[in-house]
Amino acid sequence: MAKTIHPNVQIGHVHLKVADLERALAFYRDVLGFELTQRYGDEAAFLSAGGYHHHIGLNTWQSAGGKPPPSRSTGLYHLAIAYPTRAELADALQRVLRAGIPLEGASDHGVSEAIYLRDRDGNGVELYWDRPRQEWPRKANGDLAMGTEPLDLDQLLLEGRQA
């Protein structure tokens, strides 16, 4: 049996090809609130939360003026942005709604609550928060029992305003 990966390994960042750098910055910086950490002219930018060097890279090196890939093709399904609390997820939802960005879905997966949308280049984006591990649903044998149930967005927004 192969050795399993160390439990503290994390996905460090995502780097996206975009058609228009300013449009992408307007979404990731201005709507979602990531901080611009570095920019390379009008071709690339790096953004982060909390002063990290970058969580998201955006570039037009091979994609300036391009179109999103067609459906039924391989590539990125979505990137997922983890928020530390349910209240922070509610804040992100409020930002997205204020910007007029349509949602593609909202689900309660038992282990997490997630909101699905697309950035302005058509990339799938999941905004979510994880419940504490001790609250994750489990089967009788101890295996995870994740599912997909509707997420009550009105309740999420209400609780976010109360936090």
Briefly summarize what is shown.
The protein has 163 residues and is α+β, with helices and mostly antiparallel strands. It contains 3 helices and 9 strands.
List strands and helices in order, with pairings.
Layout: E1 14-17, H1 21-31, E2 35-40, E3 44-48, E4 56-59, E5 79-82, H2 86-98, E6 103-108, E7 112-118, E8 124-130, E9 149-150, H3 153-162
Parallel strand pairs: 1-4, 5-8
Antiparallel strand pairs: 2-3, 3-4, 6-7, 6-9, 7-8
Helix pairs in contact: 2-3
Give an overview of the whole structure.
- This protein is of the alpha+beta class and 163 residues long.
- It is 21% helix and 28% strand.
- It has three helices and nine strands, in the order E-H-E-E-E-E-H-E-E-E-E-H.
- The protein has helices at residues 21-31, 86-98, 153-162, and strands spanning 14-17, 35-40, 44-48, 56-59, 79-82, 103-108, 112-118, 124-130, 149-150.
- A five-stranded mixed beta sheet has the order 5-8-7-6-9, with helices on one face. Strands 1-4-3-2 form a four-stranded mixed beta sheet, with helices on one face.
- The model has no long low-confidence stretch (mean pLDDT 95).
Question: Could you list some keywords that capture this structure?
Answer:
163 residues; alpha+beta; 5-stranded mixed sheet; 3 helices
Summarize model confidence as the mean pLDDT.
95
| Helix-strand topology string | EHEEEEHEEEEH
The main sheet comes to: 5 strands, mixed
**Order of strands side by side in the largest beta sheet?**
5-8-7-6-9
Radius of gyration over all CA atoms, rounded: 17 Å
Weakly predicted, low-confidence segments: none
The proportion of residues forming helix, as a percent range, comes to 10-25%
Write down the overall geometry. globular
How far from one another are the termini? 46 Å
In terms of DSSP E residues, the strand content is: 25-35%
Total beta-strand segments: 9
Number of helices: 3
